[in-house]
Amino acid sequence: MPEAAGMPQAQPTVAHVAGVGHCYLGETVSLHTRVLVNQRTADLTLRISLPISAELRDQQPPEQFREALPVIEEDEAARYVVWRLQGALPIGSAYEYQVDVLIIDAGPMGVFESRAELSDADGTRLAAEVATVVVQTKGSYLRYLPEIYEDDALMARFLMLFESFWAPIDRQISSLHWYFNPDLTPGDFLPWLASWMDLALDERLPDERRRRLVRSAVPLYRKRGTRRGLQEYLEIYTGSAVQVIEYRAANLRLGSEARLGYGVALGKGNVPHTFTVVLHLPPVDSAGGLGKDEVTRRETERLRMIRALIDAEKPAHTAYDLRVEVTPANEVETF
Questions:
Q1: Which of 4, 90, 135, 188 could form an S-S bond across to 106 if both were Cys, CB 3.0 to 4.6 Å?
Q2: What pTM, to 2 d.p., does this model score?
Q3: Sign of the C-alpha dihedral, residues 314, 316, 319, 323?
């Protein structure tokens, strides 16, 4: 698309973040930098500054310049990792860099700071961003010891080693409650969580439906054996609209004993303790890439699973009729 005359063009941007917001002395921190080109340009220079005390462990260029190597520069204040993007750079292109740094000293403020600066071929600064990491210089385990150890630098560093080793375990324990939230727990944890409520999950279901089934398990158990409970269960399982029609009264029979009331119903096909389930489902081969035999097999398997679910949820003394209406995927009402 041609650019409008006189329309201002956006400058290239740079994003610069650390992989963690908090670390201990002696740990390695990964710095991630992303350059986004928003206008036609060429020959950009990315300069990433590191504290002079930090030790550069590794660096990774973007995929587009996999063979490129940075230039390392130093002055009295900092060390610089310099990358050059040479040649014409297309609009919308993005370049991602990674620098791994060993934190040796946190400075007087206890903060590790790195700056990413992007400049053009003339040296004009186009964008810049700073990434900071809070560095813990003393082990917090000191608070569990007598006050006399507070000023013992050796003890502080010694305890910090164990604290950094155990930090991942501490974080996992502190976030343990999220594992019991069906919306946040890892997908592999869902079957175990469902087993607490005697709920068997179909591994073929999309992750969102499995989470919704676990989340709705208790309310569904309260409604088990009811029309509404069966309808909600099927809607979650299939992801489509479901209609459950109950027949509670017998057909009206003319005669001397005929009475209109709650015990009879007009029309045909009214058999007490029966119901009909109407499902509106998309075709099993919406993309159209399966063979006839495979389509038949999948349709049969889908019906088998739906019948098994209905048999498990309906009252034992009832009978039902299942009607599946195949509807184009874009016309199926989803839940």
A1: 135
A2: 0.53
A3: positive
